[in-house]
Amino acid sequence: ISIKKFIEGIPKAELHLHIEGTFEPELMFEIAKRNNKIISHASIDELRKAYSFNNLQEFLDIYYAGANVLINEQDFYDLTWAYLTKVHEQNVVHVEIFFDPQTHTDRGISFDTVIRGIHKALEDGKKQFGISFKLIMSFLRHLDEASAFTTLEQALPYKNWISGVGLDSSEIGNPPSKFERVFEKAREEGFLTVAHAGEEGPAEYIWEALDLLKITRIDHGNRCLDDNSLVQKLVELQIPLTLCPLSNLELKVVKDLKDHPIVTMMNRGLLVTVNSDDPAYFGGYMNENYQSIADALQLSKKQITELAKNSFSASWLTDKEKENRI
Ligand code: HPA
Ligand code: ZN
């Protein structure tokens, strides 16, 4: 069978996905209308045309603006449900997704509203599609430590719904060390930890995520290749990297997908996975990410199988659950 059919057919887990990054313009306009919110672009087409980025920050500015129309629990439900419907068609059977509470609580939306909507959709996705899930609460690293602590406090009543904490937003100038104490508290409370590191920031930030935040996975991690001893460490500990090919292309982390380091990383023994990051903004969900990298780097079915298997081994499913999924 063709590589395309092979990618479509193989069961996959998604481990690096921002739910706010799945907000398609069609749904954004629909929700804006019912909430009497104005979008600064005149039409769906105009909005899509604005999705052209030179770096992470240019994307983040548009991504946070888009989230402004989300007000009610139903909005968060609809957003999450649309994502699950989409990835169900792509044979994604397990998801570990991020939400950014501060993006909403800073606009006066309650933590409760946000998490209830997302959680209810995830439960329904499990019932209707059999998609298992974990939810990861991500701190915005451009905001201060106090704001992250407040967010962690707000999350405590919903501990059963949140498996881990993460760190995202503007990387350069906001190193993991800024959140060492917040992550320490989060671990004490029983949360697993991950962090975006080495997307635009240096290898040093990946070291900090490992040593100071005690992360179980690195989100992106592209820049680890600048530091041989870091690569050695990540291989030795089998710390997974959640790579996002189309995101890297759209945010100019790589010039061309032919330059994407995924194969180099696999060959060096790193545990790498393919993910979509913010599919509504970067032009593709899981299968499009697999396909684009398969095309650019001439991946074999064996390599694609390895990547799909990695997505489960790198997940937070138990060993028994993993066996049932692979
Ligand atoms: N990097 C940092 N912050 C983000 C990203 C990303 O790729 N996507 C959404 N928030
Ligand atoms: Zn991300």
Q: How would you describe the overall organization of this protein?
A:
This protein is an alpha/beta fold. It has a single domain, classed as TIM Barrel (Alpha-Beta Barrel). It contains 17 helices and 8 strands. The chain is globular. The protein binds hypoxanthine and zinc ion. Residues 16, 18, 168, 196, 219, 277 line the site of zinc ion. Catalyzes the hydrolytic deamination of adenine to hypoxanthine. Plays an important role in the purine salvage pathway and in nitrogen catabolism. Pfam families: A_deaminase (PF00962). Substrate binds at residue 278. The active site is at residue 199.
Radius of gyration: 18 Å
How widely separated are the two ends? 20 Å
Tally of domains: 1
Ligand species:
hypoxanthine, zinc ion
Q: Give the CATH level 1 class.
A: Alpha Beta
Secondary structure category? alpha/beta
Order of helices and strands: HEHHHHEHHEHEHEHEHEHHEHHHH
Largest sheet: 8 strands, parallel
* CATH-defined superfamily: Metal-dependent hydrolases
